Amino acid sequence: MSMIEENRAQASAALPGPSLAGVEDFLALLKPRVMSLVVITALTSFVAAPAGLHPVLAAVALLCIAVGAGASGALNMWWDADIDAVMSRTANRPVPAGRVTPGEALAFGMTLSVGSVLMLGLTANWLAAGLLAFTIFFYVVVYTMWLKRWTPQNIVIGGLAGAMPPMVAWAAATGTVGLESAVLVALIFMWTPPHFWALCLIKSDDYARAGVPMLTITAGPDETRRQILLYSIALAPLGVAPAFVGLGGPLYLAVAIVVGLEFLRRAVKVYRVREGDAARKAAGGLFGFSLIHLFALFFVLIAEKLVGIAPLTGPVPGWM
Fold first, then answer.
1. pTM
2. CATH homologous superfamily for the domain 22-177
3. Is the per-residue pLDDT at 10 higher than 70?
4. Alpha helix stretches (DSSP H) within the chain
């Protein structure tokens, strides 16, 4: 029996009996910090889309997308209870800590998954609902059940699930999948590896103890730093791309250049500083700033739309 299987058996054996969960534990299953990213990126598509739902329907559709993301988080915690139990960062999550039983987490996640997809289809359209269903499936089955435990490219490929909310929202608002939303998906997709690998440089021991083949373990920290730098270089042009596909205006372009250069500066520092506390501090600095970077870009897109700043270019022909 592998270590993962032993941990899963121990976790299941340690969690008999009725649930001790409170409302806050079921909220924690939804991964609210991840949901906040989903909400802001999906909201950006709703605001920027040239056609739109009625505001009430748009609010319901946004809630469906957020709940779908939360359902993915609950199912992720159900499946990963064994490895969460041996990682200091995740040991106090509701399932490994014993406050929510695995069966409850599974039922909670499945109910919310099905409900969010059906409600989005009825509220907006079935293209958006299909994309949401694909996103949930990709995160739970492709990433959580397969990629995470079998390949160091788990974050790279699995990052597609976290990148999809803007496209789901764009489809809900317009009934189509446009180049604009594809650019936003590509931006988040390319942002995800350096964001998570920076964390992995700090928490490598946790992942090694859990048997998760993160890049820091399979290829080593130096190769991880090199990959962070390469992805950060590729991310830089994607950060400014929304300004050239009819989404961002001059304010967005200026902010994207500034935060993109700062992201790249921090990635270079992670690549160069490799020893001791200074290396951990550099990785932590990149991880923290990566959140500021992404939120800043999407907040500015929303702000420009709300105050009436026109995009630098019009909609891309043939996509709307």
1. 0.91
2. UbiA prenyltransferase (1.10.357.140)
3. no
4. 3-13, 23-29, 32-48, 55-79, 81-84, 102-123, 126-137, 148-150, 154-163, 165-174, 179-202, 204-210, 215-218, 221-240, 250-272, 276-307
